[in-house]
Amino acid sequence: MTPTIEATAAPETRRKKPRLALAIATVFGVGYLPKAAGTLGSLVGIAVAILTHPVSLLTIIGLLFFSRVGLGFDVPMFRGHTVPVLVLIPSLLALLIIGLLGVWSSSRAATYADLKDPQHVVIDEVSGMHLTLVLAIMPLGLPTGLLPADEATDFGLYSALSLLNWKYLLLGFILFRVFDIWKPWPIRRLEKLPGGWGIMADDWMAGIYAAILLRVALHFGLFAFHIGLV
User: Fold this and answer.
1) Which residue did the predictor score with more confidence, 23 or 163?
2) φ, ψ of residue 84 in degrees (nearest 5)
3) 162, exposed or middle or buried, with CB in 10 Å at 0-12, 13-18, 19+?
4) Could you tell me the sign of the dihedral formed by the alpha carbons of 134, 137, 143, 149, in that order?
5) pTM of the full predicted structure?
6) DSSP 77
7) CB-hemisphere CA count at 13 Å for 140?
């Protein structure tokens, strides 16, 4: 009688944890917070929108370190000029980079968690909120020639101060969260896209819807702010 040899099963190979992808997808741990991770991700998106606009960033630096901004004259929120998009190039580059990193990292995070859209992935809220605030102040077209310096300066101030106006930020935040939770057509269909594209695209669509309504509010002058230079 030949002795039976019990075969030992090879240990299951453990998947390597994608630490970099998880760090990006969770926005360095924000997604792991126990409550309102999506809301906090949207707040991070607001901060990104402010800090990637060069004029608003310089305004904050001036306020914090040089006290160069104070009460003064009223500035309307909507100028009505068709202006070059050059001042928004850093914001647009940030949108592109965050979007691409979001697709890559959320796809890796979802695969590792074996879930379609893990709750701890919040880079999609960051990208969608950022898109809302930047898209609403985008010019509708470009001029055929060089724009006078005063009009270009007006747009730089208009776009920067919009991003520093708490009423603009609050309405943009509320609109984005409403559309992100409500998910009107075609947001739910976009969720079915493969991998990270499905995770990110639904928030981009929510951001587009929110930006349209935010732009309407700007157009009809529903906001005003008071700022001056000293």
Assistant:
1) 23
2) -65, 155
3) buried
4) negative
5) 0.80
6) S
7) 8
